[in-house]
Design brief:
The complex is a heterodimer of chains A (about 350) and B (about 550).
Chain A (H helix, E strand, L loop, with lengths): L1 H39 L4 H5 L7 H11 L5 H13 L13 H36 L4 H15 L2 H15 L24 H8 L2 H38 L2 H8 L4 H38 L5 H10 L3 H29 L7
Helix pairs in contact in A: 1-13, 5-6, 5-9, 5-11, 5-13, 6-9, 7-9, 8-9, 9-11, 10-11, 11-12, 11-13, 12-13
Chain B lengths: L4 H9 L3 E12 L2 E13 L4 E5 L6 H8 L7 E10 L2 E2 L5 H4 L7 E4 L3 H4 L6 H12 L4 H14 L5 H4 L9 H13 L5 E5 L7 H18 L2 E6 L2 H7 L2 E6 L2 E6 L1 H6 L4 H9 L7 H4 L22 E8 L8 E8 L4 E5 L6 H8 L7 E6 L2 E2 L17 E4 L13 H11 L5 H14 L16 H13 L5 E5 L7 H18 L2 E5 L3 H7 L2 E6 L2 E7 H6 L4 H9 L4 H5 L1
Parallel strand pairs in B: 3-8, 3-9, 6-7, 7-8, 13-18, 13-19, 16-17, 17-18
Antiparallel strand pairs in B: 1-2, 1-4, 4-5, 9-10, 11-12, 11-14, 14-15, 19-20
Helix pairs in contact in B: 5-6, 5-8, 6-8, 8-9, 9-21, 15-16, 15-17, 17-18
The chains are: A mainly alpha (about 350), B alpha/beta (about 550).
Chain lengths: ~350, ~550
């Protein structure tokens, strides 16, 4: 038994390794594409970093040389790859710091926001989808559909501004939308970078509360947008499972209603929901840009957007690479979750 | 409250299930239609009632309605259902819940789909126990393991942790029986419990089920399309046709002296030991079969398969050194259980799969030399054609019958325009498919009509060899009779050779002159069909034959 167990664990480990290896070509493709895209975009990055807008051609040339822009493109790419291999993602001209440091500092903010948004969305969408599926065609079902349509048709920057208008400006319930923390609050010692967790570790409840209250509106904004697809897929998958033969069996042997719905129907219905949640998470992380901008959230999305505006190559390339890597990891996590929920699935 | 002996005696005699003038309506796009039009029947405690009929007769719907399990679009439009004396015709979910599983329970046709795919079977049995009795998890689990032992799981303790996909179809049905019997119901409704299982598995599951029912003094309603099975296991048989109960009685009486014309047709269409194709259909209903062509003896064989091997890389070889020959115009049966390699062999022969080793010499040419992916360009493609098992799934749902038949004629026969149209019509006539229906899509055709389209598109190219992979397994017996008759007529008229793959031994016996028996990728016995059926050599052949339920048993008594 234990031999079989360790063999299973080994094959699972092999599966994970295989997945990661097979993602490398895709990552390289993303890398090359971003590199080329950045170079074909109009704009001379050197002109942003000279001392004055009226600087002469000689000064521009010096800056270009310092940035390595005087080499031909393929050479630039090879240098870039060489740097990457040594863990050097380049330096952000806009902040003057290594890109890695900037990203490491900002990623937790984005992750915290996205996870909070996704958690909120799942917490609302799954029960709503299940209830809608239990009474298809009912008032509740139609209500869910209307709210979903409204949520998905409002762009995040509109719904974000709307929430700010109502809850901050009008009702005054929410704090000002100026980042993760009150400027007067002392940030806790950075351990994970997730403020909510770091505050808990430090036992600082005031700051915890302050960061939570600032998280609510942006998280709601993100959730509003993602509830719709989640609720729809839950409803559809639940409807299909409810008419399946094993649910009929459960009814035929007189299992209690909640047991039929939760253990027999819902657990099976969640399988496609997990897949969709994975891709939604990845999309949310990238689509954060607008929400981060509206709420002055110090995340990677806003950082990349600012860099893009300044034709600052290194941070954008670093951001895209980071996002691609996160995509790969999220897909891996989804597959692992699959194996946990569905005994028919094996990683290898 | 203690019951007096008289009341107890009366309760013991009262039917466990009473259905009175039950009408069931389904709402669909075209308004409401009645699927069951006034059925009355009752089941006494300890009785085993067989409910037989073809698809669409309403037998399953009647029983689902009795258990309150109709789908959303169905409703009881009239009549009464009483379970153990209690009127449950319009009972709510809450009223039915304590009855289901504890008084009346059900098992279904496709056991793997009927079990929760992501829950261990032991837990599913324990769920059923805990739904009706206040027992601890550990106790429920213990009883689940005991139940698995009752349904003959070899290692109940370990297998309680197995998921349905880890068990064979037969084991799944055993687990399903354990779930259904967990709370000792008084009545079990078994809806085609062994359809789709191998004959030997079928027999062992049915024997087990019948044993458990008798042991526990339960009543059972066995819903089946298989008359022989009803005859073997039921004390009383009710025959349904198009929502009506046409005849009820003892199996002997019903099957040996049927009174209703429908029962008579049904009994005649069921293949028995000595039957010939001509006997299955009422005399005069179809044109008489032409005389069988004289067998061509000796070489050259039309098909000579030598040392065929196929390994899918999952342990055992699927096909392991199979050799046989087939002469032009002859019919060769290939029988065996699922996993025996008979379907793989048929796919190798018709070049849908590449063999690992071996030769397929067809008309003097080794076909195995051409790769599967190039074979569609070979001029031999039109010489070997196929008819598949499922007439619905094997037709393109967006092709009309005309397009289905025209497609191979256009691609392989190179026909266009008027010549194509003429050939399509000729083919339709050949397979007795009404020309007026040529523009219908598969879902607008009946099962028998779809089977004709499937046969038509295969024979239109006038192949020398037809590979028939369980061509009638999905059809009702009366339709099967007509389709078998058609296949036999086509073979004799067109001089085609058949490789007939089937698990239905009675059908193979009628259709084939010679038969191969396969087990674990090898041919264990090859003999003229009559010899194989009357004096089988191999023990496996004997066990296959013994497992076939047959109406002949009634005659022997």
């Amino acid at each position: 038994m234990s031999a079989a167990g360790s063999r299973g664990a080994l094959s699972a480990l092999k599966g994970v390794g295989g997945r990661l290896l097979s993602a490398l070509p895709a990552l390289f493709g993303v890398l090359a594409l971003t590199f080329i895209l950045m170079r074909v975009l109009p704009g001379d990055p050197a002109s942003f970093f000279v001392s004055s807008p009226t600087a002469g051609e000689a000064e521009l040339e010096i800056v270009r040389q310092r940035m390595g822009l005087d080499h031909p493109l393929p050479m630039q790419f090879l240098y870039y790859l060489r740097d990457l291999a040594t863990g050097d993602f380049g330096t952000a001209m806009t902040t003057g710091r290594p890109v890695v440091d900037d990203l490491v500092e900002r990623l937790p903010a984005s992750l915290e926001l996205t996870l909070a948004g996704l958690f909120l969305a799942v917490a609302i969408a799954v029960p709503a989808g299940v209830l809608a599926a239990l009474r298809p065609g009912s008032v509740f079902d139609h209500g869910v559909r209307v709210i979903c349509s409204a949520g998905v048709s409002l762009p995040t920057f509109v719904s974000g501004l709307l929430l700010i208008y109502i809850f901050y400006y009008w009702l005054g319930w929410a704090p000002d939308p100026t980042g993760r923390l009150d400027i007067f609050a002392f940030p806790p010692e950075t351990v994970t970078g997730f403020l909510l967790i770091d505050c808990l570790l430090a036992g600082d409840w005031d700051t915890w509360w302050s960061s939570l209250s600032r998280l609510v509106l942006p998280a709601c904004t993100m959730a509003l947008f993602t509830i719709a697809p989640l609720a729809r897929i839950t409803r559809g998958s639940m409807l299909a499972v409810l008419t399946s033969e094993f649910v009929r069996t459960a009814d035929a042997v007189g299992l209690p209603r909640w047991k039929v719905i939760v253990t027999y129907a819902l657990r099976n219905a969640l399988i496609p929901v997990v897949t969709v949640s994975g891709s939604i998470f990845s999309t949310m992380l990238g689509a954060n840009v607008l929400v981060e901008k509206v709420f002055s959230w110090p995340g990677v999305g806003r950082y990349a957007l600012d860099a893009l505006m300044a034709s600052d190559y290194a941070p954008v390339q670093g951001f895209v690479l980071l996002m691609a890597t996160i995509f790969v990891f999220v897909n891996l996590v989804v597959d692992l979750l699959y194996a946990v929920i569905d005994p028919r699935v094996s990683l290898s | 409250m203690k019951m007096s002996p008289e009341v107890q005696a009366e309760a013991a005699l009262r039917p466990i299930l009473e259905i009175e003038d039950l009408r069931i309506a389904f709402s669909g796009r075209g308004g409401e239609s009645e699927a069951v039009k006034g059925v009355s029947l009752s089941v006494a405690p300890g009785e085993v009632l067989g409910l037989v009929g073809e698809s669409g007769s309403g037998k399953t719907v009647t029983m689902l309605a009795a258990a309150g399990l109709l789908e959303r679009n169905g409703r009881i439009a009239g009549g009464k259902v009483r379970i153990a004396g209690q009127d449950v015709t319009r009972a709510s979910r809450g009223m039915l819940r304590p009855i289901r599983g504890a008084v009346i329970s059900m098992i279904f046709q496709n056991p793997r789909a009927a079990l929760n795919p992501i829950r261990a079977v032991g837990d599913q049995i324990a769920d059923a126990i805990r739904a009706h009795e206040r027992v601890s998890k550990a106790q429920a689990r213990e009883r689940a393991i005991a139940l698995l032992a009752d349904v003959k799981f070899p290692r109940p303790e370990a297998q309680a942790r197995a998921y349905p996909h880890e068990l064979s179809g037969g084991m799944c049905q055993r687990a399903m029986i354990a779930v259904a019997l967990a709370c000792n119901p008084k009545l079990l409704i078994a809806d085609e419990p062994t359809t789709g299982l191998d004959p030997t598995t079928q027999k062992s599951v049915m024997d087990l089920l019948a044993g458990l029912i008798a042991e526990r003094g339960m009543a059972m309603v066995l819903i089946t399309h298989d008359l022989a099975m009803a005859a073997e296991y039921c004390g009383r048989v009710a025959v349904m046709e198009q929502g009506l109960l046409v005849e009820t009685g003892l199996p002997r009486r019903i099957f040996l002296a049927p009174r209703h014309p429908y029962t008579q047709r049904l009994v005649a269409a069921s293949p028995t030991r000595g039957a010939r194709i001509e006997d299955l259909v009422p005399p005069g209903a179809l044109p008489a079969l032409p005389a069988a062509p004289a067998p061509t003896i000796g070489r050259p064989h039309l098909l000579e398969v030598v040392g065929l091997q196929k390994d899918f890389g999952n342990g055992a070889k699927a096909v392991d050194g199979v050799s046989f020959t087939l002469n032009a115009g002859q019919s060769l049966g290939l029988v065996g259980e699922s996993g025996s390699g008979k379907s793989t062999t048929s796919r190798l022969v018709c070049r849908l799969l590449d063999a690992d080793a071996g030769a397929i010499v067809f008309d003097g040419q080794d076909l195995a030399a051409t790769a599967e992916k190039d074979f569609h360009r070979s001029p031999r493609r039109s010489d070997i054609q196929l008819v598949f098992q499922d007439p619905t799934d094997s037709l393109n749902p967006r092709f009309t019958a005309r397009e289905c038949i025209a497609d191979p004629l256009r691609r392989l026969g190179g026909l266009r325009g008027r010549a194509l149209e003429a050939k399509v019509r000729e083919t339709a006539d050949l397979v007795s498919f009404p020309q007026a229906l040529l523009d219908r899509l598969p879902h607008q055709l009946s099962g028998g009509q779809k089977a004709r389209v499937g046969i038509g598109r295969a024979v239109c190219l006038e192949p020398k060899l037809m590979v028939l992979d369980e061509p009638t397994a999905a059809l009702d017996v009366s339709v099967q009779a007509v389709v078998l008759h058609l296949l036999e007529r086509l073979r004799r008229e067109l001089g085609m050779a058949y490789l007939f793959v089937s698990h239905d031994l009675n059908v193979v016996r009628m259709m084939c002159a010679d038969t191969l028996v396969m087990k674990s990728g090898r041919i264990v016995e090859a003999a003229p069909t009559e010899k194989l059926f009357t004096a089988p050599d191999h023990p496996y052949t004997r066990s296959l034959l013994a497992a076939v339920p047959s109406l002949d048993a009634l005659k022997d008594d």
